[in-house]
Amino acid sequence: MARSSSSSSSFILILFMLFTPIFSLRECQQRRLEGGGKVALYIFGDSLFDSGNNNYIHTTPLDQANFWPYGETFFNFPTGRFSDGRLMSDFIAEYAKLPLIRPYLEPGIEQDYENGVNFASAGAGALVETFQGAVINLSTQLRNYKKVVRWLRGKLGDGEAETSLSRAVYLFSIGSNDYMSPFLTNSSILTSYSDSNYVAMVIGNLTMAIKEVYLRGGRKFGFLNLGPLGCLPGLRIIQQEANGSCLEEEASTLAMLHNEALSKLLSNLETQLKGLRFALYDFNTNLGQRMNHPSKYGFKEGKSACCGTGSFRGTFSCGGKRPVKEFELCESPNEYVFWDSFHLTEKFYKQMADQMWAGGPPAVKPYNLKSLFQCLD
Ligand SMILES: *[C@@H]1O[C@H](CO)[C@@H](O)[C@H](O)[C@H]1NC(C)=O
Ligand SMILES: *[C@@H]1O[C@H](CO)[C@@H](O)[C@H](O)[C@H]1NC(C)=O
Ligand SMILES: *[C@@H]1O[C@H](CO)[C@@H](O)[C@H](O)[C@H]1NC(C)=O
Ligand SMILES: *[C@@H]1O[C@H](CO)[C@@H](O)[C@H](O)[C@H]1NC(C)=O
């Protein structure tokens, strides 16, 4: 009796070891989230994360979402987020027991700097050429970050600021616009570079950004790879007369090349930059699965957007403030993967956040965000 129970428990132990993800090899000294100092969240990138910075810049409604029906579900008013409700980064802040991270440009935000800051700007890419003049480009996002660092040093003193910056987590969503904007603006930039040189330029600029943050003490990073860009409703319709195919050859291929380069870059940086740790979320696979098998994940519609015009509601008209004024709006955003032609519903963002926060490989690796937030060193 005793014998059989001990052999079954060692069997369970072996099973447990087999299924314990590689986190066990990737341990850092951890503390419990409750108690101890605060771990701040700094957010960089594009419309996946922009919580309202573009409300404050001189741009066009193409890069803004501060009008109905954006925000119609959770907030009940348009905040500037490109969704019906919260974004992935909002859920991550919640899981980290932080308040919603405010946009850098929001007046009076200094008092909240110690929780982190959101620098993201809808439309931004890693390259300054991407939607130039209409967005806060990545290099300006970094300049704003450096201003916050100076402010923290002044407020907390160098030592405490350093501790705070090294415990903080830095989230990036960048790149999609670099690869989509040439198709959306008829820019000829892609014809001047080979695909691999263009990707190298995007990755090169992202690398500079990571190194800037690292230089100021940042050690813990979270990244999303890029979705199957050619299959977003807004690009699908570019395919001749919307026969429903993705713009595979072009945009999705660039995204795949980027994703390979990103994953290679991060492994290299992990060995080059002492103490750097990261969580890389496989947005590409997870969006693809939900587009192709929506019902498996609790959605009814995987390909068409909730809000927009025409086939797949792929014309970027949600809200009627952009060039096309008429638009359709679904009744239940919760049934949709896509909220508008390029962006996702709150329900989808929550699924992403849940996976990136507490999931394991292959969805997120080598760390998940929870373990990065709990990491002491
Ligand atoms: C980057 O963005 C800032 C702020 O929007 C802008 O002032 C600057 O001119 C941009 N840089 C380039 C090269 O476009
Ligand atoms: C891009 O060029 C095509 C063909 O010249 C034209 O029909 C289309 O309206 C242009 N699109 C934009 C966004 O300028
Ligand atoms: C960053 O992008 C610019 C174009 O905006 C490019 O000229 C430059 O070479 C890139 N930098 C790196 C390090 O790749
Ligand atoms: C859709 O149209 C594009 C461009 O005309 C073509 O290359 C592609 O094969 C078509 N796809 C289908 C499924 O018919």
* SSE topology string: HEHHHEHHEHHEHEEEEHEH
> What is the residue-mean pLDDT, rounded to a whole number?
90
Q: Could you give the count of β-strands? A: 9
Q: Could you list the spans in which at least 5 consecutive residues all have pLDDT below 50?
A: 1-7, 12-25
Write out the distinct hetero groups bound to the structure: 2-acetamido-2-deoxy-beta-D-glucopyranose
How many DSSP helices? Answer: 11
Radius of gyration: 21 Å
For the termini, the CA-CA separation is: 46 Å
Total domains, how many?
2
CATH architecture of the largest domain: 3-Layer(aba) Sandwich
The CATH superfamily label of the largest domain reads SGNH hydrolase
Give the biggest sheet: 5 strands, mixed
Q: Characterize the overall form.
A: globular
Strand order of the largest sheet: 1-2-3-4-9
For this structure, the CATH topology of the largest domain is: Rossmann fold
CATH class of the largest domain: Alpha Beta
Give the percentage of residues in beta strands. 5-15%
- Computed structural class: alpha/beta
Helix content: 25-40%
